[in-house]
Every structure is written in structure tokens, then in C-alpha cells.
Amino acid sequence: MTDIIVKDRINEIIEEIDQVITDNNIETGTNGETKEDSEPKVPQQVKPLEDVPVESNEVDPEPGENPDANKSNDGELATNVTLEPQDEKQADLRVLPNPVAVSKISVPVDDDTGQLIGEEEGFKQIETFIETYQSKSDTDLNDANILKTGTELAAVFTSKIDFHFTVSLGIRNKYRILLGSALNITKAALKQHDKSASWEIYFKEQIGMGKWSLSSAEKYMKLAKIQHVRRWAFLGLERLESIRTVLDKEGYLKFLEKEDRNGDDYDPNYDAYEEFFKDHNISISFEEENIDAFRVAIDAAVLKRKIVLYYKKRNENVPDNKKVENTVKDDLIDDLISDGIEMKSKIIGDLYRYDKDGTDPNSLLEDMQLSNSNKISKENNDRLTDIRTIDGIPVLVSELRSKVKYFNNHKDLIVKIKPQHIRDLETELNALKALVASHQSTK
After folding, report:
1. How far apart are CA 179 and CA 217, in angstroms?
2. Which of 74, 121, 204, 392: CA 20 to 30 A from 60?
3. How far apart are CA 143 and CA 358, in angstroms?
4. Residue 159's Cα: distance from chain center in Å?
5. CA triplet 279, 285, 289: central angle to 5 degrees?
6. What DSSP assignment string belongs to 252-282?
């Protein structure tokens, strides 16, 4: 167990060093000031115009009417909406802190009777089906026609709802990518206007204002730099980001900056996402019924590229066709993704470790397929524990070595490390050396 203890100690020290470095870079300025002191001040917002009194056109309510029925402390509610529900479909807005804002969303939702998905007649069919049978006893539902109708309605409208939901999200993403382009320009303008200005603070106080986080906005800002990316807004943010990540690591993202588009090698037609789809033969024309298959194909392709990247990072000889030949079976990956099984980075590392150890990595995938989860058999788990222990120590030592190198260039940080942790590590390393020496002497 000594080797495992040593790993824990090294991990502990690496985490401590990482925290010190993070604290030093983020929490203090270059001269030791706190972040609050060192960050530049943000220009004050433009003072809004004073409200100009206008002549009221309101008329006195009819006798018996409640003049405040469509008002709240926050202003006017949407047309034909009252705080108190008028029917069972309307929410009781009196229980909400901001009924005005809610009414602007709830009204179009309540008013939709199939218009969004182009199925007003179908909407009536579903409502009629529900009203006809929901109050009947279970024994009365023992009818083949009821079963057939319910099944057909569910099948048809599930695909239509998903299709139009995808369209709506695509439009939202297109708008946000447009905003990302505008924010890139705004950020550059801020730096020109005030070179000491903090974009993070400016965004938070002038743009985000609690409605949009900087981390979310920066995803769209990165996407907006990619040529022709708006064509692919319908993919949704999650898949736009996952593809962008692998393309970026592979070096396939080109012409991101203005200066990149002034060279002789600039290709105005280059589309990195299009190349991705060509590489994996993924059809970009799809109908309502196969949207899920389209998403699965993208997710599986991204995972395969991540496996290749993992191998390349470890200086393995990986062919140019973006596949790890004779190692991981494509059809197993396709099946697992199709079954909705999450393939975390840890699993990719385990596939690599199995491969290096001479064990078939596909046995791990087959385990997951059998269990319909990311769980593996006890035999494979025990084997992986041994491999990780052997493989993990040199990796941890390498990480520690890089941290030591950092400290050599930043000696002022050394005083922040607890000496006892270093002494503990020394003790455990000596115990490991003694264990190895004892083992060698018995051979």
C-alpha cells in the first residue's frame, strides 16, 4: 500500500501548490495589492434621462370593475391577464415576486394551441383524447383503439416537438453568436479606450448585470471568431462547443483573428465545422424523425477524436485519418453513445492504459454495454486499479517536477508551502525506496 500512500501525498502537495499559484495569480495584483485594489475602476453608467410627466389617458373603470386587476407593484401586466387566475390554465401570479415579467412569458405559452409546431388540429386531437379518457377507470381503458390512438399521438408529436425545440434553440444560438461578435468588438474597444480597464468587471457591471454570466458569454465570443460558424447554430451550444474543443486542440481552427485573414494563405471559404462533418461522413440534412440519430453521430465522432487526441498527447504514433487503428471499435462507441451512456475523460484514459498494458481496451466498452452504464466488471476494475497505480506514480512525479520548476522561478511562494507536507512526502518516498530495495535484494 506504500505506493498508494505516496500517490495520495503527492496529490495533496500538488493540489496545495496549485492553490497557492492560483491564489497568487488571481487574488493579488503584481505589487501585492488585493484584487479589489488593483483592478481598474469601471466608468460609471450614463445617467438615465429624467422621467417626463405625461398626460394620463386612463378612463374611470366601469362600476363593479377592479381597476387594479391587471396591475402589480411592478407595473402593468400583459393584456387580458390578471394577478388572480381567470381559469385553470393560468397561474396565480399573486404568489410570484415579479408577475409582470412572468406574464410576458406565460401569456404566449398559454395562448399557444399548436401554432409553434404547426399542429393546431393535432393539438385539439391530444386535448380531446385526454378529456375523453383521463377520468375513466383503468378497466374502461382496456380498449385496443385507445392504445393505438395514444401510441400514434405520442410518436407523431414527440418528433414534432423535438424538431421545433431544436429550431428554437438554433435561432437562440444564432442570436447569441451574433452577440458574441458584438462583444468581441466591444472588448477591443474597451481596451483601446482604457488600456488598464478590466473586461471582466466591465462585462459584469455594464453588460451582464446578473442576466448573463461572463463564462457563458465567452463561449459565444470564442465561437463567433470561427469563420462561417453561424451556419451551424442549429447544432446547439453543447455540440458547437464540443466540436470546437477538438478542432482547436487539433489545430483545425484557422483565421480566428483579423490579422490571420490578411495573409496569402487566407481561404474565405474555409469552414472547420464542414470539414469535421466530411471527415465522419455525417449527413447534415435531416428530417424530424432522425434528429436524435444526428446528435448521436456528432457525439460519437467527437469522442473518437478525443481518444485520438489522448493518444497523440502521449506521443503515440497515430495515423492522419483521425482514428486509432485496431484499438477501439467504432461500432462499440456508436452503440454506447446511442444508449445515452456518458463517456467521461477517465474512461478514455483507461482505454489507453489497457491498450498500453497489452489488454484489449474494447473489453471495457463491452462491460459498459452489458451493464448499460459506465460501470465495469470487478475483474476489469481490479485490473485497472493495478494499472493506474503503476501508471499513476510517474505521471504524478512529472507533475510535481513541473511545479518545482515553477517554484524555482517564483521563490517568494515557497514560504507559503507547509513544511510538514514536504517532510511527510519525504518520509513516504523513502519508504517506497526501501520497499523497492528490499524487493530487489530478494531476487
Report:
1. 8
2. 74
3. 58
4. 24
5. 120
6. -----SGGGGSSTT--TT--HHHHHHHHTT-
Q: What is the arithmetic mean of pLDDT over 380-389? A: 68
Decide: 362 and 332 in contact? Cβ < 8 Å. Answer: yes
Q: Which three cell numbers stand for residue 204?
A: 459584469
For residue 326, the 8-state DSSP code is: T
The CB-side HSE value for 28 (13 A sphere, CA atoms) comes to 10
pLDDT digits (tens, 9 = 90+) for 365-378: 888 888 887 677 77
- For 332, the grid coordinates are 462499440
Q: Burial-class residue 352 by CB neighbours within 10 Å (0-12, 13-18, 19+).
A: buried
Q: Residue 235: exposed, middle, or buried by beta-carbon count in 10 A (0-12, 13-18, 19+)?
A: buried
Q: Which of 10-24, 234-248, 356-370 has the lowest mean pLDDT?
A: 10-24
Instruction: List the one residue out of 165, 154, 172 whose CA is nearest residue 295.
Output: 165
Mean pLDDT, the chain, whole residue set? 76
Please state, as a whole number, how many other Cβ atoms lie within 10 Å of the Cβ of residue 226.
Answer: 23
Q: What pTM was estimated for this model as a whole?
A: 0.61
pLDDT single digits (tens) 397-441: 767 777 777 777 777 777 777 778 777 877 877 777 777 677 667
What DSSP designation does 235 have? G
Flag whether pLDDT at 382 surpasses 90. no
Of 96, 47, 99, 105, residue with least CA distance to 74: 99
358 torsion bin: left (phi>0), alpha (psi -120 to 50), beta (else) = left
Contact 230, 178 (CB under 8 A): yes
Task: Indicate if the pLDDT at residue 45 is higher than 50.
Answer: no
Going by C-alpha positions, the residue among 37, 45, 72 that lies closest to residue 81 is: 72
Cα angle vertex 363, ends 362, 364, to 5°?
Answer: 85
Rounded to an integer, what distance in angstroms lies between the CA atom of residue 423 and that of residue 429?
A: 10
Contact 302/346 with Cβ under 8 angstroms? no
β-bridge partners, 76: 71
DSSP 327: T
Q: Measuring CA to CA, how many Å separate 193 from each of 178, 187, 196, 246, 266?
A: 23, 10, 9, 35, 30
What value does the mean pLDDT take over residues 180-190?
94
> Which CB contacts under 8 angstroms, 24+ apart, belong to 344-348?
344/374, 345/306, 347/374, 348/303, 348/306, 348/307, 348/310
